[in-house]
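Example 3.2
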Amino acid sequence: MSNLHNEIYVGYYSWPICVLGPGKRVGLWLTGCTLKCPGCMSPHFFVRRPEQRMPVATLMAKLRPGLRACDGLTVSGGEPFEQPAALAALLQCFAAEFPQKDVLVYSGCTIEEIWQDPQKREVLRWIDMLMDGRFEVNSSHEKVWRGSDNQRLLLLSERALKYAAFREAKSPARPLLQVQWLGEGRVSLIGVPARGVTANLRGKLRAVANAAQRETRQD
């Protein structure tokens, strides 16, 4: 039985997300990553902060409305497998409440590395799809849902086999991004952008948001 008293470090969550896995999904980004791949899209999730910590039960309560409305859960980070006990507790709770919905987890670790650690290996029981491997900024970037083509979409459950075509599927010519306005001139970019797009787009979006904020204050 999952331990809902386990505490988990959470950077961000949102739904519906349509660019990180099949269908409409709840996206969850955990914090803390010692891999720190050069060129990572989410360096702001490398370090954990005390205010990001919450019980797994609290997180489930926050995610539940989205999970009811979406097709599945996508977990990224940060490095989710650096919180194996809390991640396992969360995914067990998810499986108990939403047994027909699937889980996709992004990890910079390979499945071979995960398998060497018994605690991390236990988490694999609760995952349908694993996108594994370090982000390699100089690798090709053609396959769907991943930042570099060395990363593998691994199907770990029988129900995930219906997504087999996506293991080698190509990304659209223009990789899809979702943009969310967070207020106070802040934006969130969700998805896997083409190389070099992230910094440029973030700068432009911040400029637009700041201009809109100034106009609002003047009114």
